[in-house]
Design a protein that fits this description.
By secondary structure, the chain is an all-alpha fold. The chain has helices spanning 9-23, 37-50, 56-68. The protein contains 3 helices and no strands. The longest helix is centred in the first third of the chain and has 15 residues, at 9-23.
């Protein structure tokens, strides 16, 4: 909840890899669910909402959704 804590780098990298695949909605069947992943994802989403920010994956997903409905040759407008 607060204060110092320790975590193995391998656990951070495994959670990050799973997180990226999950957020990009790609298959992550061959990767085991990291310990406390639901809590990590919930806290990350709460952080983004609390700070009124988006991450690069959110920007990419929004761009991709906008491009589906538009002509790929035309530039995006505001």
């Amino acid at each position: 909840e607060h204060g110092d804590f320790g975590v193995a780098l391998s656990e951070v990298l495994a959670a990050w890899k799973y997180f990226l695949l999950d957020k990009l909605q790609l298959s992550h069947n061959d990767i085991p669910l990291p310990q406390n992943y639901d809590l990590i994802r919930k806290e990350y989403d709460c952080f983004l909402k609390r700070t009124n920010t988006v991450d690069l994956i959110d920007v990419f997903i929004t761009f991709k959704e906008l491009r589906i409905n538009e002509d790929p040759e035309e530039p995006l407008t505001a």
